[in-house]
């Protein structure tokens, strides 16, 4: 290939696309398999060549030995005449590559070879014009002292067989290689097609089509499993984004109301205010409105920090009973003023050595403050609010219950939604963040928070803390 | 706005890069008669602070060239004990702890009301002049006396029974005698609450404390400063 720098960009691109499958995992694997197969073909070829060579030479020697034995038999029964007869018969019945010799005291008596050195046993004669330029392999023996006989065959047939075997092996090698490359290309192309489809789907999703999913073949192979995992991740991200945009929408809505009120007040102040006193009062309420908006911001930012989880690093042992006692003392004057009754009951279960958990004091103070303030704000005077702490089935359960009007069961789950406000409480101050913030804080502590199923009146929110493991 | 009872006019160094916030703070503090020098980046601020002569520093957390935390750490490492009030953006949960660990004396979340800023600056500026004092064992305001060791309170010779939280509240007020303490300062220092409760916790606790400490005695010690907070004064 020409150096890449000399290829124009577009052309280089197509080259890249064309040979891209060479870089796929599928192709790499096929190439490795092809290599291993080729190597085994070579080893097998060499083995076959060595074996056939040996077998064919053995065969020549065996045939030659049989010829020599026949000549010996002839000589033994009827003397030199019969031996020559046998040789002539053998020569007549054989091709040009069979050679015979009978010599007495170094002089040729019969046969188609010139006189030669009288070696016995297996004899190898190098190629020469006399042997039609073939190497001859055969057996030599003495019929009687001075009477030497030789029978042999050219080995060129053996070479022909070997060449044939080699050709077959080479053909096999070539076919195997071709199949491996083609198979590898095919496999990697289909692999590429699927990964390309996945990549394309990912890009389309990135470009905004969040409803799109990665195609799944239904074969539950590794690519399918990968695609399913990615799809699950996408669904989760979509759900989170949905949640986020829901919250952003809610925030936009919730902020618009107080900002609009603020604007109204300022506008009215401009037209209606006559005296500095009136201006001052209008500005005072405007500032209060602005503070309300900033408070909402602060609360929302707090969510991000709590959900970030960084506070977990600062967790320390904390006695929930002491905390709830303080909470009762903290809110008792408030409850007293609003006409609520605030009480704390601690039922120490079997072997409860205090209710110590690991947690963040400030955040848990906020959690219980939110629950208690909810009860104070949303129930009429005279309502009894009770804090309780108990150990139940391996959990430390803190409850904030009231005997007020309660909340219909179907609304229980919604209560923990961010910015959710019940119709009945829209006139009350607040942003509908108290319980969802309590939920976030509970989750940070590995605690479960929920509305308890009680047959009695009122609402009971319970927080189940896991008992910290010893040590 | 009602004038805050303030002590002597002091020199304050403000290190804040946001021009509008800086102007806002300068306006508030010079209205009280204080002399404010402004620096707009951390490096310049550190130089000015090293030169000394300030009763308090107001340092923004986020500053160009050198951030506020590093600046104060550097000052403290050089044994410069000028009181520091950190300014921080909204509701950083760890900001307060980080600020105090770096050597800050208090922190204030932006945006803030003027009274909040003034109360905190007065508190730390005054504290700065008394740092050499050993920890007192007794706090006194007119005929009100608090024993910090025995944890008892007497007024006019009569013993007053206080709950733990009431005691801490009164102690904080007495330690800041003559100065204004805001609702937020009380929530942070007495109850360790760094969020705004929806109910009037502070007001009801103050009202309880008043009923025990002030009711039935000739002069009121705990005063409400409208639009700002509370102040315990013996005058």
Structural features, described:
The complex is a heterodimer of chains A (471) and B (235). By secondary structure, chain A is an alpha+beta fold. In chain A, 55% of the residues lie in helices and 16% in strands. Chain A contains 8 helices and 12 strands. A 5-stranded antiparallel beta sheet of chain A has the order 2-1-5-4-3. In chain A, a hairpin with an 8-residue loop joins strand 11 and strand 12. Chain A is rod-shaped and about 155 Å long. In chain A, 24% of the residues are buried. Chain B has 235 residues and is an alpha/beta fold. Chain B has 2 domains: 11-129, Rossmann fold (3-Layer(aba) Sandwich), CATH 3.40.50; 138-232, Winged helix-like DNA-binding domain superfamily/Winged helix DNA-binding domain (Arc Repressor Mutant, subunit A). Chain B contains 8 helices and 12 strands. In chain B, strand 1, helix 1 (19-31) and strand 2 form a beta-alpha-beta unit. In chain B, helix 2 (42-51) packs parallel to helix 3 (68-77). The longest helix of chain B is centred in the middle third of the chain and has 16 residues, at 114-129. Chain B is elongated, with a radius of gyration of 18 Å. The A-B interface holds A 287, 291, 294-295, 297-298, 301-302, 305-306, 310-311, 314, 326, 329-331, 333-334, 336-338, 361-362, 365-366, 369, 373, 376-377, 429-430, 434 and B 90-94, 109, 111, 113, 163-165, 191-201, 204-205, 207-208.
Care to give the gist of this entry?
The complex is a heterodimer of chains A (471) and B (235). Chain A has 471 residues and is α+β, with helices and mostly antiparallel strands. Chain A is built from eight helices and twelve strands.
């Amino acid at each position: 290939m020409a150096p890449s720098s000399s290829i124009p960009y577009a052309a280089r691109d197509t080259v890249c696309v064309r040979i891209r499958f060479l870089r796929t995992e599928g192709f790499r694997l096929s190439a490795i398999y092809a290599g291993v197969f080729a190597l085994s073909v070579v080893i097998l070829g060499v083995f076959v060549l060595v074996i056939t060579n040996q077998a064919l030479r053995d065969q020549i020697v065996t045939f030659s030995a049989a010829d020599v034995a026949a000549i010996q038999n002839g000589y033994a029964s009827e003397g030199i005449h019969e031996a020559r007869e046998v040789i002539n018969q053998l020569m007549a019945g054989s091709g040009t590559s069979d050679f015979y010799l009978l010599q007495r005291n170094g002089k040729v008596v019969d046969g188609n070879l010139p006189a030669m050195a009288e070696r016995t046993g297996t004899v190898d004669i190098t190629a020469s014009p006399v042997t039609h330029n073939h190497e001859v392999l055969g057996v030599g023996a003495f019929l009687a002292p001075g009477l030497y006989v030789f029978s042999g065959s050219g080995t060129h047939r053996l070479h022909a067989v070997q060449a044939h075997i080699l050709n077959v092996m080479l053909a096999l090698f070539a076919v195997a290689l071709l199949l491996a490359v083609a198979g590898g290309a095919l496999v990697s192309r289909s692999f590429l097609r699927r990964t390309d489809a996945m990549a394309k789907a990912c890009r389309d999703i990135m470009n905004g089509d969040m409803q799109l999913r990665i195609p799944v073949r239904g074969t539950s192979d590794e690519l399918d499993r990968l695609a399913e995992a990615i799809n699950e991740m996408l669904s989760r991200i979509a759900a989170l984004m949905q949640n986020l945009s829901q919250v952003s929408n809610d925030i936009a809505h919730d902020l618009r109301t107080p900002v609009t009120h603020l604007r109204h007040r300022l506008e009215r102040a401009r037209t209606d205010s006559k005296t500095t006193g009136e201006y001052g009062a209008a500005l005072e309420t405007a500032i209060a409105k602005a503070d309300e908006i900033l408070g909402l911001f602060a609360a929302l930012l707090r969510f991000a920090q709590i959900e970030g989880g960084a506070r977990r690093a600062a967790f320390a042992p904390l006695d929930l009973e002491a905390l709830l006692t303080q909470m009762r003392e903290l809110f008792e004057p408030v409850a007293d003023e609003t006409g609520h009754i605030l009480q704390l009951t601690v039922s120490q279960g079997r072997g409860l050595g205090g209710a110590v958990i690991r947690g963040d004091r400030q955040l848990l103070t906020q959690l219980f403050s939110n629950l208690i303030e909810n009860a104070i704000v949303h129930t009429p005077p005279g309502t009894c609010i009770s804090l309780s702490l108990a150990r139940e089935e391996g959990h430390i359960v803190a409850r904030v219950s009231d005997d007020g009007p309660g909340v219909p069961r179907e609304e229980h789950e919604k209560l923990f939604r961010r910015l959710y406000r019940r119709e009945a409480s829209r006139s009350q101050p607040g942003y509908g963040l108290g319980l969802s913030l309590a939920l976030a804080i509970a989750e940070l502590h590995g605690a479960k928070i929920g509305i308890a199923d009680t047959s009695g009146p009122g609402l009971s929110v319970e927080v189940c803390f896991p008992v910290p493991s010893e040590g | 706005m009602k004038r805050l009872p303030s002590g002597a006019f002091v020199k304050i160094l403000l290190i804040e890069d946001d021009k509008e916030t800086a102007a806002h703070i300068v306006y508030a503090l010079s209205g009280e008669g204080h002399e404010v020098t402004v620096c707009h980046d951390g490096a310049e601020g550190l130089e000015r602070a090293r030169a000394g002569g300030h009763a308090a520093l107001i340092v923004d957390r986020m500053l160009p060239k050198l951030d506020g935390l590093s600046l104060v750490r550097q000052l403290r490492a050089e044994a410069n004990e000028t009181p520091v009030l950190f300014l921080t953006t909204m509701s950083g949960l760890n900001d307060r702890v980080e600020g105090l660990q770096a050597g800050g004396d208090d922190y204030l979340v932006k945006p803030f009301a003027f009274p909040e800023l003034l109360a905190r600056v007065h508190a730390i500026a005054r504290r700065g002049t008394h740092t050499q004092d050993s920890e007192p064992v007794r706090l006194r305001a007119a005929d009100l006396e608090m024993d910090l060791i025995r944890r008892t309170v007497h007024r006019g010779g009569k013993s007053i029974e206080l709950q733990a939280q009431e005691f801490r509240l009164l102690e904080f007020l007495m330690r800041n005698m003559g100065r204004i303490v805001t609702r937020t300062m009380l929530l942070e220092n007495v109850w360790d609450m760094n969020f705004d409760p929806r109910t009037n916790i502070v007001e009801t606790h103050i009202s309880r404390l008043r009923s025990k400490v002030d009711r039935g005695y000739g002069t009121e010690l705990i005063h409400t400063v409208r639009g700002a907070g509370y102040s315990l004064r013996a005058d």
